[in-house]
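step 3/5: co-fold with inosinic acid
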Amino acid sequence: MTLQIIVGAQWGDEGKGRIVDWFAASSDYVARYNGGDNAGHSVTVGKNLFKLHLIPSGIIQKNAIAILGNGMVINPASLLEEMEMLRAHGIIVNPSRLRISYGAHVILPSHQALDKALDTARGKDNIGTTGKGIGPAYTDKAVRRGIRMIDLLSPDLPTKLGSLTNQINDQLIQLHAEPLDPEKVISKFLEYQAILSPYIADTSLELSKAFNDGKSILAEGAQGTLLDIDHGTYPFVTSSNVTATGVFPGLGLGLNAAQNAIVTGVCKSFQTRVGSGPFPTEVFGAEAERLRGTGANPWDEFGTTTGRARRVGWLDGVLLNYSARINGLTELIITKMDILTGLEKINYCLAYKKGATQFTDLVNGPSDLNGYEPIYDQLVGWDQDLGSIRKWAELPKAAQDYVRAISDHTRLPVKMVCVGPERDQVVLVN
Ligand code: IMP
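step 4/5: write tokens
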């Protein structure tokens, strides 16, 4: 009987996809509990690079059953595209391997249009959303006019779609954006209805029974802690509960499943962020280009979903400790250690300074980071290529010291470090 929650400890893009893939090899279920196709989870298996946005990356493993939980917002067009992509790679995607919660909300084309129109209207204060309709779909959930997966099973679907599309059209017109034709939306959704209906299920019931029967459940978080609607850098956040406790409402699991849960925080060896918002350890110029890469490699710091260049900086231990607390992390995994190879010095932010005062904790949460300057511990770098190393003892001492420094500062065990993008390029820490 285990629940393991994989959660991003930063601003997303920590490399959760390949970590989920790793643990899914020994899990009965892999379940996503939040967000939608704003997420981009990459897994490299041999020559294949899988870019997943909705379906938990655990589906690439042969046995785990993939669940899209009720806490998600799902764009059926993206889901079907992803199912086809997986099938083209020989992965079985049918209702015996993939189940969608009846309670998950549906993203309509008008949600996407509204997302873009709203962010454009914010002008220089824009959030830099992914434009996937996430915010508007969660808004409609909250104002209780949203369409859920269960509605795809109902003969009332066309009426509901027409009514919601018309209501959002009013908002689009006010924002000087193009309204959508409800009839076109309805005819597309009737196609989706025919294909997706067999996948819709009571996944809360299934997961709860599985847990009680001693099966293992791997919960896959999307985005990262600092993008959480309640605990992130509000308003520069996404619209869902990203953090580990989001698993319970987002999958319909009871708190009995929390006992002895493993909460794995995934964090990069440095820090990145896409879109606007505070970032105390951000670097610019040549230093940033070095951490970001040129975009020539799939692992360079350019968005999987949007292709945007990510902002980059040094690992922020103050925010990492915040993340550890908010999530109740029990362990850490550090990804992309190989990217630091060749740096003479590596900075790790231990505290902030404002005026003459030092802060090791955030004063009013992560939204208010203006004026806080990072205080760095400067560690020695290493030159050795890490890509072929598989044993802790073979890592250069400087790399071991960096991992120990993070572990000491967060008071968390580091379970694993990643030394390259391939599935097996990992080192278990001992
Ligand atoms: P939204 O989720 O599209 O509404 O975007 C809100 C903010 O979250 C923007 O700054 C996005 O760049 C960011 N964001 C959303 N999803 C991800 C993700 O999976 N990785 C990194 N940033 C994300």
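step 5/5: annotate
Residues 157-174 form the longest helix (18 residues).
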